[in-house]
Amino acid sequence: MNTFRITHTTRYVYTDPVSRCHNEARMSPMNLPHQTCAFSKVHVSPSPRSSFQRIDYFGNNVFSFDIHQQHQELTISVISEVAIDKPCSLSLENSLPWDQFTEHLEQANKHQQLIVHEFVLPSPQIPQSASAKDYALSSFTPGRPLLDAVNDLTRRIYNDFKYEPGFSSLSTPLETVIEHRKGVCQDFAHLAIACLRSMGLPAMYVSGYLETDPPPGKPKLTGADASHAWLNVFIPEHGWQGFDPTNNQMANERYIVVAQGRDYADVTPLKGVVYGGGHHHLTVQVDVTRTHSHTFN
């Protein structure tokens, strides 16, 4: 089991005063069968007039707050501690053939069918894509084991697409990413999900953090970590399994899940309405450090 302390600070600086704002933050890690969030504290400056917490439709932790005082800077800082169990070992070759998935799912209970089918349908940021299906086909040959096929798709995206920060934005269409063969982790997760859904397989978008190592011989820099995105695919008789096309690997005990949904729109770390403000400058600092305790002192 790995235990991590995560500090995530988001800061907006505005050119003009903001008279009020209404926001939702999805920045506290989830509780899942393999992951326990022992502690998560949200601090907002300036102080909100009101705030409350809830669990959304997808099981994500949501912190909503309103600020009714004039301000030109907004800071949201979240400190969390999370324990991650080591995942069970899965055999790529011994999983169910991908083209038998639909038949197998029909034997599941109705509740599970409803949950899984939702993640086969198109979503706001992942529409149906003939280009994605064309790209997926070479990985999903008849009779190929599901895990092996998804692992091959992950490997191909890693090899075929260039990781290039700044190429895409939150509004960049998936077709643009496919055409130019470049993007960032959000784009690669969306692409893999589009490929899987085009083959009739359920896949969900996951946002969170990945424990990283500094370059050899270098100390780990404060604030050098970042939010990350990957995907989950549903494996019969196992459940959801994470794959990371940005790093060409399956998710393991170094992956910390914050939120999950159909695509990025369901898991946006911070969104809301601002009155005034003009232009803004955004900075984000993330620290993921390994600890030896499960609770804070």
TrEMBL record:
Gene3D superfamilies referenced in this protein's UniProt entry, alphabetically: 3.10.620.30
SUPFAM superfamilies registered for this protein in UniProt: Cysteine proteinases
Domain (Transglutaminase-like) ranges: 177-247
Protein name, UniProt field: Transglutaminase family protein
